[in-house]
């Protein structure tokens, strides 16, 4: 009988496992190697597309595990590079286009931009920006209106069955799903002994509080997350270092705490 999976780690990417500015993940290599040594699973959970995540997942050596893509609106199965023909992106873009013009004009999504414009606002090379535009389930973008207009915008979206999630960089729209929902399904499938989740943005909170242990990774480029449930008991911890350096330190600390 196969032994039970000792640990499953769910991790956000931008500003968490990968550096906010350089997109490097290699400072987290010591912890990733330690996880591999004990046979732990690492599940990437990002607003990135399947096309983006599949490349990164291969680079890190995690192809044997599924990945959560487009902010939880979709799932990239293990050992594949595509999500298949299950996407809802055309319907989503159509519904966004039906919103009142005054509000629609304040939201500039990736589908409204050229690859060069996406490159400019993300810092990705143009080839990477094109991968970011290969969307199947969701539409990230920048909000340029007032807070009051944003509230009205989100209310109109709800009437179309669309939800909005604020990430570290972008407001992302989809017909539903989030990282925590996908996370629960994956946990049910693999039944790990322990779970850890790491993130830095509001759209990571549900994932952080769902895991046995949550890690808020410092990100000097955005306001810190407010205190979370479980933080006073030590179930939620915060890193002092940002990005993959903080990620690495937190995983090493938790592996020691769990005696793994």
Q: Helices and strands in order, then pairings?
A:
Blueprint: E1 7-11, H1 29-37, E2 41-44, H2 50-60, E3 67-69, E4 74-76, H3 89-97, H4 101-104, E5 107-109, H5 115-122, H6 126-132, E6 138-143, H7 147-159, E7 163-166, E8 171-174, H8 179-190, E9 194-199, H9 205-210, E10 213-218, E11 236-242, H10 243-257
Parallel strand pairs: 1-2, 1-9, 9-10, 10-11
Antiparallel strand pairs: 3-4, 5-6, 6-8, 7-8
Annotation keywords:
10 helices; four-stranded antiparallel β-sheet; globular; alpha/beta; 260 residues
Notes on the protein architecture:
The chain is α/β, with parallel strands linked by helices. It has helices at 29-37, 50-60, 89-97, 101-104, 115-122, 126-132, 147-159, 179-190, 205-210, 243-257; strands at 7-11, 41-44, 67-69, 74-76, 107-109, 138-143, 163-166, 171-174, 194-199, 213-218, 236-242. The strands form 3 sheets. The protein has a 5-stranded parallel beta sheet with strand order 2-1-9-10-11. It has a 4-stranded antiparallel beta sheet with strand order 5-6-8-7, covered by helices on one side. A two-stranded antiparallel ribbon has the order 3-4. Helix 1 (29-37) packs parallel to helix 10 and helix 5 (115-122) crosses helix 6. It is globular and about 55 Å long.
């Amino acid at each position: 009988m196969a032994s039970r999976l000792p640990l499953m780690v769910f991790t956000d990417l931008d500003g968490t496992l990968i550096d906010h500015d350089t997109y490097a993940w290699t400072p987290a290599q010591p912890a990733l190697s330690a996880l591999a040594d004990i046979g732990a699973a690492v599940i990437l959970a990002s607003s990135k597309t399947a096309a983006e995540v599949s490349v990164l997942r291969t680079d890190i050596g995690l192809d044997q595990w599924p990945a959560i893509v487009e902010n939880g609106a979709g799932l990239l199965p293990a050992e594949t590079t595509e999500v298949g023909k299950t996407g809802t992106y055309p319907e989503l873009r159509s519904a966004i286009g039906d919103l009142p013009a005054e509000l629609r004009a304040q939201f500039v999504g990736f589908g409204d931009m050229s690859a060069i414009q996406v490159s400019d606002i993300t810092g990705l090379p143009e080839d990477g920006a094109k991968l970011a535009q290969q969307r199947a389930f969701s539409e990230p973008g920048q909000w340029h209106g007032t807070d009051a207009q944003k509230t009205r915008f989100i209310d109109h979206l709800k009437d179309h069955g669309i939800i909005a999630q604020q990430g570290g960089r972008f407001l992302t729209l989809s017909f539903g799903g989030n990282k925590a929902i996908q996370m629960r399904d994956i946990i049910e499938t693999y039944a790990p002994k322990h779970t850890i989740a790491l993130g830095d943005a509001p759209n990571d909170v549900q994932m952080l509080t769902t895991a046995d242990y949550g890690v808020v990774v410092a990100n000097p480029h955005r306001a810190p997350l407010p205190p979370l449930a479980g933080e006073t008991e030590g179930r939620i911890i915060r890193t002092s270092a940002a990005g993959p350096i903080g990620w690495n330190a937190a995983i090493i600390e938790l592996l020691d705490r769990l005696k793994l």
